[in-house]
Write a structure and sequence with these properties.
There is one protein chain. The protein has three domains: 207 residues, 2-Layer Sandwich (Beta-Lactamase), CATH 3.30.450.20; 36 residues; 163 residues, 2-Layer Sandwich (Alpha-Beta Plaits), CATH 3.30.70.270. With 533 residues, it is α+β, with helices and mostly antiparallel strands. The chain has 15 helices and 15 strands. Bound molecules: guanosine-5'-triphosphate (GTP). The site of guanosine-5'-triphosphate has 17 residues, from strand 11, helix 12 and helix 13. GO terms for molecular function: diguanylate cyclase activity.
């Protein structure tokens, strides 16, 4: 059963379409894994990268703003005069803790033309205490690292500059610019530097401006952090910015919620699952269609063919033959061939069991029927009679009238004998050249004798001329009758031998007579009959 199914078209279609489905699903999976998901991921990284650049631009703007504020003060005649000691009230007029807090300056430093400290004003990072001094000592000691870095930068460049500086608690942005007159004329008489801490307060302001969460850290230069990291439903991106202290970098970063990305993933997964289900349905539907349109009719056709080859008369091909498609054409031509084949078979069977000249059953059919009749007779204990009939002096007929006339004579005699056989419902066959045999089941020897006379009379009544016959002027026959009761055994040969012996005695007694079998004398026991088995 399983072996048969594995060779069927249904199985082959199933395997082929399952293969197609598997290939399509693998393609979908591969496309998702190597094209769709990476594209989404790239898009997500692109978005966070752009947001980070926006934060960096805001930082650059903040630095630019601080530099502009420093330049505003440095390009002012009052400052110009103050640094040269010509404006004593400059401090009182321009400096106050409120101004420092409002402007979020941590430190404002003035340097003379030789780069030495002229005046310092700042808010202590720890206490917020406002101090002014001319040296980085006492309350102004916290200013020392800033001042050192500024003086170092003055050595490198005499132009204005801005940079990031790693502070003790938080990094700071520094802007340094030369002090000149308001109209920009005259030589620089010193430098002015402003320092603003990038502390939590500053970060909060930046977050308000950008609308993004911002993290700022100071990292050793040796520590290289990845640009982008993903943790759960959050993606982080950061950028390392150099400071004027080579050993330390400042990392500025931001983060985004991945809900958009995760929602896209969910949507794509949903689409993929539904696509797979749809494909499954389509392939199932195709299989169903194939089953209905091709496989079922083909199966019916194969059943039709099997039944036809088995000569099954129950086959019903009407539905198949009514179809207008290729299967219908195939079924119709198959049925036509089958009908033709049956006709030929019937013709062949008829040819093999009937005599071509007279149309009577031949010896082959007679012997088959004889065998069957003996079995039947045995089983039911019924009588069975046989006859042998022979045209008298038929050689002389042929010699006198010719072979053609002899054939016609045989046909007429056969027809007459057949009519009698049909009326009594027994079988008569042409079993030799001019010899006929009759099989009379369930008929006693006496009744057979009556029938023998009837046959004898019938041929007589034909009055077929036979001038050469020494017996009569017309064609006559001799009849020998035997029966199962007369036979010592029940073989066909033995049974036919009784009729043959009776015929021989009819011939010997002068022909043109009916003779019933009588047991032979010892001298007559050598008579034989050549009926084959
Ligand atoms: N025309 C014709 N003659 C046939 C046919 N078959 C056999 N014969 C002839 O039938 C004749 C039979 O002759 P025999 O066996 O000598 O018998 P017979 O002449 O009838 O003599 P008895 O039977 O003794 O009365 C032969 O001449 C055969 O040629 C046939 O199909 N057509």
């Amino acid at each position: 059963m399983l072996r048969h199914f594995s060779r069927s078209l249904r199985f082959q279609f199933l395997i082929a379409l399952s293969g197609v489905l598997l290939l399509a699903l693998c393609s979908l999976g591969a496309m998702s894994k190597w094209i769709i998901f990476p594209a989404l991921h790239k898009e997500e990284r692109g978005i966070i990268s752009q947001e980070l650049k926006r934060v960096e631009r805001s930082l650059a703007l903040a630095q630019q703003e601080l530099l502009a504020q420093a330049r505003d003060w440095a390009n002012w005649d009052d400052t110009y005069e103050f640094v040269q000691g010509n404006y004593s009230r400059y401090r009182e007029v321009n400096f106050s803790p409120e101004m420092m807090q409002e402007m979020r300056y941590q430190l404002i430093a003035f340097f003379d033309a030789s780069g030495d400290i002229y005046f310092l004003s700042g808010l202590a990072p720890d206490t917020g205490e406002y101090t002014t001094c001319t040296r980085t000592l006492g309350n102004c000691a916290w200013m020392s690292p800033y001042i050192d870095s500024i003086q170092l930068s003055l050595e490198d460049s005499s132009d204005q500059q801005r940079y990031l500086f790693p502070g003790a608690s938080s990094p700071a942005m520094v802007a340094v610019t030369p002090i000149v007159r308001t109209d920009g004329s005259g030589p620089s008489v010193g430098w002015l530097a402003k320092v603003r801490l990038m502390n939590e307060e500053w970060i909060a302001q930046m977050e308000a401006v950008t609308g993004l969460p911002i993290t700022i850290e100071q990292l050793p230069s040796s520590q290289i952090e990845p640009m982008t990291t993903i943790e759960g439903d959050t993606i982080y991106a950061q950028h390392l910015l150099p400071t004027n202290v080579p050993a330390i970098n400042i990392s500025i970063g931001t983060q985004l919620n991945r809900t958009h990305y995760l929602a896209s993933l969910d949507t794509i997964r949903y689409v993929l699952i539904w696509t797979a289900c749809l494909m499954l349905f389509v392939i199932g539907f195709v299989l169903w269609l194939m089953e209905r349109i091709i496989l079922r009719p083909l199966k019916a056709l194969s059943v039709f063919a099997r039944q036809a080859s088995g000569e099954d008369t129950r086959l019903d091909s009407a539905l198949l033959c009514q179809r207008s498609d290729e299967i219908g054409i195939l079924a119709r031509s198959f049925e036509q061939q089958l009908t033709r084949q049956r006709e030929l078979n019937a013709e062949l069977l008829n040819l093999s069991t009937h005599d071509a000249l007279t149309g009577l059953p031949n010896r082959r059919l007679f012997d088959q029927e004889l065998q069957a009749a003996i079995h039947e007779t045995e089983a039911r204990s019924q009588p069975l009679a046989v006859m042998m009939l022979d045209i008298d002096h038929f050689k002389l007929f042929n010699d006198h009238y010719g072979h053609q006339k002899g054939d016609e004579c045989l046909q007429q005699v056969a027809l007459a004998l057949q009519n009698v056989a049909a009326s009594h419902n027994f079988l008569i066959a042409r079993t030799g050249g001019e010899e006929f045999s009759a099989l009379l089941p369930n008929i006693s020897a006496n009744t057979a004798k009556q029938i023998g006379y009837q046959l004898h009379r019938t041929v007589d009544q034909l009055k077929l001329p036979h001038k050469a016959s020494p017996v009569a002027p017309h064609v006559t026959i001799s009849v020998g009758i035997g029966s199962l009761d007369d036979s010592s055994d029940i073989s066909p040969t033995a049974l036919m031998s009784t009729a043959d012996q009776a015929l021989y005695r009819a011939k010997a007694a002068g022909r043109h007579q009916v003779m019933v079998f009588t047991p032979p004398t010892s001298s007559a026991s050598a008579y034989t009959h050549d009926t084959p088995l």
